[in-house]
Specification:
CATH topology of the largest domain in chain A: Tetracycline Repressor, domain 2
Radius of gyration of chain A: 19 Å
CATH class of the largest domain in chain A: Mainly Alpha
Order of helices and strands of chain A: HHHHHHHHH
Oligomer: homodimer
Shape of chain A: elongated
Largest sheet of chain A: none
Number of domains of chain A: 2
Chain lengths: 207, 207
């Protein structure tokens, strides 16, 4: 591959992004953080555990946060991929929206219950607005926009409100069950809460 | 006052609740926590700072949290009182709801910006579901229910959805701008966010 066609490395990452070693470090770090937690691990601990020198790890990532961001991007990418796949199964716009919301809640709750350490990284990313979290929000917004436009086309949803305002407001009201910074405080309502919020949102979309 | 007519002390509080010393301890603790923070202060520090013995403070409160709860009840009570007063100024149900939501957001944001230490106690109360926080939610629910019923009576709002479901869902979607555990993460959207959420809620209430 000529230098001109190599993808640009993302912020905080050093060297060509496609480098296999990079993926290897991220995978090893993910397993390490899963057991020992993100906060308590230094780059030195991590390098030692995965059998590289600290200097070598720094060739690929400028900081621990850069590694955390790469892991977080993977984690959040899995949630948005699940949401996309579920929305695709819906026939009507209403069904698509219900599936979209439920898939995000289920995947996020699954992470919280089964991968607490990875959830905690996502929660830090949310609170500190790391780039992968902002990218995740952009992805959800685009997916939601597709559903809303589909429902406007089919005549299921109202068309008076500017579509971007509709999408911003809906994403906003989903936050308590979607945001990794909030979900853990709404767990007691995780069965009926999302269903009632979905119904409220659908009532707001009636033409 | 005969013992039979004395009010029962709230959980975690010792001695008759009307005792003037109790109010004095709460006020002194509020001022102390405001400067030094809740986490870093022990009951011993507090007693010393306000000129009482530790044993004397324990006569009135069984723990630091009991004092924290009393302060939190005051703080949250001020917010719900502001919401009640604002809602009362509205002519229509729509106007009442807009004022209600805006008053809560403004009072909560004011606490966050100007009384950060007291906000932090409210945030702990929210995360740990202290009784004053649960009582605050009950109060907001009752206030909201009054507004919704007013709007159903006047014909402004739909009547098909069970009223308690409507109120639960609305209170839920307000959370990102209302909950002391969430507000600090939605501050970047505090100008347009609540307005767009209010509009979504009002669209959901159309008959």
């Amino acid at each position: 591959m000529s230098p001109a066609s190599a993808p640009l490395p993302a912020a905080g990452q050093r060297g060509p992004a496609e480098h296999a070693i990079r993926a290897q470090i991220v995978e090893a770090a993910r397993l390490h953080f899963r057991h020992y937690g993100y906060d308590k691990t230094t780059v030195a601990d991590l390098a030692k555990a995965i059998g590289f020198s600290k200097a070598y790890v720094y060739k690929f990532f400028e900081s621990k946060q850069a590694i955390g961001e790469a892991i977080c991007a993977q984690t959040l990418g899995q949630i948005s991929a699940a949401a996309e796949a579920e929305a695709g199964k819906g026939r009507t716009a209403e069904d698509k929206y219900r599936r979209f919301f439920r898939a995000i809640v289920d995947a996020s709750a699954d992470l919280l219950f089964n991968e607490r350490r990875l959830y905690d990284i996502a929660a830090v990313a949310t609170r500190e607005r790391w780039p992968p979290y902002l990218a995740y929000l952009d992805t959800l917004f685009a997916q939601l926009r597709t559903i809303i436009l589909f429902g406007r086309e089919s005549g299921e949803f109202e068309r008076k409100t500017p579509v971007d305002e509709t999408c911003r407001a809906i994403l906003q009201v989903m936050q308590p069950f979607v945001s990794p910074a909030m979900l853990e405080y709404t767990l007691d309502q995780i069965h009926d809460g999302p269903t009632e919020v979905v119904s409220l949102v659908l009532r707001s979309l009636v033409p």
